[in-house]
Amino acid sequence: RLPREPRHACNRGRALRLETLSSAPPVFRVPGLLSAQECEAIIALARARASRSEVSSGAGGLRSSCTAFVRLQSDAALAPFAERAACALGLRTEALLAHAEAMQVVRYPAGGFYDVHVDASEFQPRHATLLCYLRAPASGGETAFPLAGAGGEASLAEFEGARRCIRRGAWAGEPRGLSVRPEAGDALLWYNLGEDGRPDLRSCHAALAVGGGEKWAANL
């Protein structure tokens, strides 16, 4: 069931607004979820864990980026952000801290990307994703949902077609889909499962290549 738009949730005197970008799958923008100070604090925590970060890349492969994991409980300065993140997800803060995965912080350098993928599987039914933009690149780095707006269920053939299209750099001319330009402090919230509880291929998404500068993002 989709939240009404705009949805306001007061948290320490601060209102959150969810803007509907897509209904199939449900995708929302949360403007100003993080302050500039919180963005930089998370980046600093991720840099401190760089020695334990995983890096995966490959020619025409899945991903070109660096990843670190940060727990929201690791810095008291992140407590207000944790409350707002829980609020956006419709959870109690205690539930978010107890059950959510560690926050994955990703740095994309110039040329960095993440190929079309889904966040849920039959073995890992991740209900929702909250993607927070910590630092925006000079150009590129959009989050693309190539099958957003597809009527009914998307097929595996459509998923593979979207992946090939984005790899060729030809997706920009497609008539459907959604592309969101990163803005530091904003977040995207989307749902990965259909009403039947199975992964919804329409939620497949990609981090398009960074054109200039670097992009930092974190997801819960």
What does it look like?
It is a single chain. The protein has 220 residues and is α+β, with helices and mostly antiparallel strands. The protein has one domain (8-219): q2cbj1_9rhob like domain (Jelly Rolls, Sandwich), CATH 2.60.120.620. Helix content is 20%, strand content 33%. It has helices at residues 36-48, 79-89, 93-99, 156-167; strands spanning 8-11, 14-17, 19-23, 26-30, 54-56, 63-70, 103-108, 113-117, 128-135, 139-140, 143-145, 178-180, 187-191, 205-207, 210-212, 215-219. Strands 3, 4, 5, 6, 7, 8, 9, 11, 12, 13, 14 and 16 form a twelve-stranded antiparallel sheet that branches. The protein has a two-stranded antiparallel ribbon with strand order 1-2. Helix 2 (79-89) crosses helix 3 (93-99). Mean pLDDT is 84; it is low at 51-59.
Instruction: Give me the number of helical elements.
Output: 4
- Counting DSSP E segments of at least 2 residues, the number of strands comes to 16
CATH superfamily descriptor? q2cbj1_9rhob like domain
The largest sheet, given as strand count, sense and whether it forms a barrel, is: 12 strands, antiparallel
Question: What is the name of the CATH topology?
Answer: Jelly Rolls
Topology at a glance:
Blueprint: E1 8-11, E2 14-17, E3 19-23, E4 26-30, H1 36-48, E5 54-56, E6 63-70, H2 79-89, H3 93-99, E7 103-108, E8 113-117, E9 128-135, E10 139-140, E11 143-145, H4 156-167, E12 178-180, E13 187-191, E14 205-207, E15 210-212, E16 215-219
Antiparallel strand pairs: 1-2, 3-4, 4-13, 5-6, 6-7, 6-8, 7-16, 8-14, 9-13, 9-16, 10-15, 11-12, 11-14
